[in-house]
Amino acid sequence: MIEVAVFLTDGFEETEALTTVDILRRGDVDVTTTSLTGCMTVKGKHGVPVTADALFDDVVDRPFDMLVVPGGTVAYTEHQGLLDLVVRYDSEGKKLAAICAAPAVFGKAGILKGRRAVCYPGMESWLTDATIGSDMVETDGHITTAKGPAVTPFFALRLLEILRGKEVADEVAKAFLIPLVR
Asked: Where is the DJ-1/PfpI domain (predicted)?
């Protein structure tokens, strides 16, 4: 089974986190929502409380196939354990993904040099040494980034395609009534 960690911290963007989790799970990906706050309940940017599946310290050594950071806040950049994990995954060529404000984590971790990346408009200064891409969702090597909430279904489908293939992603898109143009 393919395993993915989706990280949550107070102020996370609910649409980006929960839609991504939903689409990946519809594609038979085992997703572990992971709290960075030390508490199982994490409060989203718009006040929606979400109960995480696990705490960071309990899963930090699990061999996930991909790490996903939804946006909503740059507070993710303050979690040293997450930064260290991102650096480790990058050095091993493992899959990483972030959307909206969260690509700031990759910038702060110093893993974007020479890579195409995107983020929420106006936050490009966080993408240290990156080439700013022009697409709504950019995949450069093992790193995928996306611009923001409205493109979340396409971001999640890209991740599903990377993890399970185009056929599975297209099946989920069709069932979800998402246009197949990505």
From this structure: 4-161
